[in-house]
Structures are given as structure tokens and as C-alpha cells.
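Duplicate of #3305? Posting structure anyway:
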């Protein structure tokens, strides 16, 4: 996941090598690119992050943690829906 995020950072920012602790905005990222970043994250991981998420966790590592958390929440919601369907 971090490798994929690193590649997304590098493509959007037209940057060389990006590390997991490099900050999106310190690497010349700006709000419009942050919107594109959130969109690419959705396309890649099927997780919707807000611009606020990107501003509050602007590193590869921070965004990866948010994605894992969101994926866990999605999986939990799907399990709950399946359980409710069985009860009905």
C-alpha cells in the first residue's frame, strides 16, 4: 500500500523518489493536487478520504494508516449488513 501511495505522490508531484515520511505539501503539493490525490486514492483503494484527511495526514505513512482504518470500517459495515440480512 505504501509503495502504491508513493507512486501516486511521485506521479502527481512529478517528483523523484518519495519517502514514507515526506509531506505532500512540502513536496510542492497544493490544494488542487490534494483533491487529485484523494481521487487517486479512491480509484486505487476504494476508500474515500476527505481533503481534511490529506491535510491532517499528508505523508504516505499517515494516509496508509487512514486507508487501513477505513477499509476495516468498510469490512465491519459489510459484516453487519450480512448479519442483518440473515436476521430478516
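Output from current build:
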Amino acid at each position: 500500500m505504501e509503495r502504491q501511495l508513493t507512486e501516486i505522490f511521485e506521479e502527481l508531484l512529478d517528483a523523484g523518489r518519495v519517502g514514507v515520511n515526506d509531506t505532500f505539501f512540502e513536496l510542492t503539493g497544493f490544494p488542487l493536487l490534494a483533491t487529485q490525490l484523494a481521487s487517486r486514492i479512491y480509484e486505487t483503494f476504494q476508500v474515500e478520504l476527505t481533503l481534511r484527511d490529506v491535510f491532517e495526514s499528508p505523508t504516505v505513512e499517515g494516509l496508509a494508516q487512514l486507508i487501513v482504518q477505513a477499509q476495516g470500517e468498510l469490512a465491519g459495515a459489510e459484516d453487519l449488513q450480512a448479519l442483518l440480512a440473515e436476521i430478516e
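Confirmed duplicate; merging threads. The domain at 2-87 is CATH 1.10.1200.10 (Non-ribosomal Peptide Synthetase Peptidyl Carrier Protein; Chain A). Residues 60-87 form the longest helix (28 residues).
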